[in-house]
Amino acid sequence: FAVLSMNEVFRPKFEDVVERDLKISNRDLSNSVDEEILSEKWANKWQRTHGFDPGELDLTFSSLQSGTQFELKPAVESSEELVPMQGTFLLSLGVKYAEYSACLTRTIFVNPTDTHKQAYTLLLEVHQLVVDKLRPAASFRDIYLAAKGLVQQKMPSFADKFTKSVGFATGLEFNDLRLQLNEKSDRSVVAGMVFCVSVGINETSVPQWASW
Description:
Blueprint: H1 2-19, H2 26-37, H3 40-50, E1 57-66, E2 87-97, E3 100-110, H4 114-133, H5 140-154, E4 165-170, E5 180-182, E6 194-197, E7 201-203, E8 209-211
Antiparallel strand pairs: 1-2, 2-3, 4-5, 4-6, 7-8
């Protein structure tokens, strides 16, 4: 449901705004995404094509971040800033199906610099590292330190801009604050856990950008 919502609704609506140079705020675009995802049109289509029960579909949040500041965490409220025609864009969704949660973020660059590309490529590698290390009995702290260590090894200048967490356990509760993949956690992975893996770099100096 999260992937369908992103690929068939959110991303196409965003791309239409940029391609047509439309003047719309992050918040207004996000609100229009909410309305469309929850419309009968998509519920009926996804029921036909994927067997979803429309009564079990629920949107927890959608968020579009672009412009001058970024927060790399779920459910950030979209700002009133107009969507720029170039730069960094973070498209995020949280959904539920049959009461179980899922989330998804896509980073889109328009006219990216070499630095943007390098950060994105590095984060793909870090993301895969975290996924590979999510095995029963693995320490949350060790997983985080391995991820940050890879950033420090490959691109030291990004280490202090790396996220303070690389994900969290999800399920009936969307984001369990006790089960964060960070340096301070004393928890370990248990068989059957489901995780949202979330790695990012946030550049707060001007010009601001992020990859998540």
